Amino acid sequence: MKLCQRDSRELLATDRTIQIVNVSDGEIITRSLTDRAAFVEVYDRHERVVYRYTARRLGQTWADDITSETFMVAFSRRDDFVGDDARSWLLGIATTLMRRHVREEAKAWKGMLASDLAQIDVDQFDEADSRLDATGAVRKLGKALARLPSGDRDALLLHTFADLDYLGISRALSIPIGTVRSRLNRARRKLQQAIDPARGREMEEHRGRNLAAAPSTD
């Protein structure tokens, strides 16, 4: 049975007469261990962020279901939460759930718009997009995203579509910040190579020279 967003909210609590303000997510989640209605505040604070992120990755058809399931999973695991801000935690749960929908996500990339291309954070693009046909660039980017290792793609899209910084991505994926940095850099290089192979080769050669010139740590 599919759950709509309203259904998941009502399953968490059937009544809430006061709004919780000036209280961290962590405090609300702790309160929800004995008062389940309190968790609705977490839903109200973060539902739109989770929905937008899932919709960008899977399309609106799947976004409702993934968003609803994200909050149901979060509610069932709320005793494991540590911290003050639940956003990264919730986006991490959504990311895990979306891994079951690889085919649907690949279809979403095929329908990617030029506006989506502009939001992919690839610092090394420079003037690549202006030298390429926009439709061709979008198509190449969609294929390149689909070919990225799932961990690299998740890191890139949490940064791009959910606006998480390195620390937020680290918390969402439960990986060190150094690993986040490596995944983002690798993903950007792969996308650059797909969009503009000539420029991509130049970047790889430049990177190789820098590595060769770096002092040994032995």
Automatic annotation (TrEMBL):
Keywords: DNA-directed RNA polymerase, Sigma factor, Transcription, Transcription regulation. One of its GO terms (molecular function) is sigma factor activity. Residues 198-208 have a biased composition (Basic and acidic residues). Residues 43-106 form the RNA polymerase sigma-70 region domain. It holds the Pfam family Sigma70_r2. GO terms for cellular component: DNA-directed RNA polymerase complex. Residues 140-191 form the RNA polymerase sigma factor 70 region 4 type domain. Signal peptide: none annotated. It comes from the Bacteria. Residues 196-218 are annotated as: Disordered. One of its GO terms (biological process) is DNA-templated transcription initiation. PANTHER family: RNA POLYMERASE ECF-TYPE SIGMA FACTO, RNA POLYMERASE SIGMA FACTOR RFAY-RELATED. Belongs to the sigma-70 factor family. ECF subfamily. This is DNA-directed RNA polymerase sigma-70 factor.
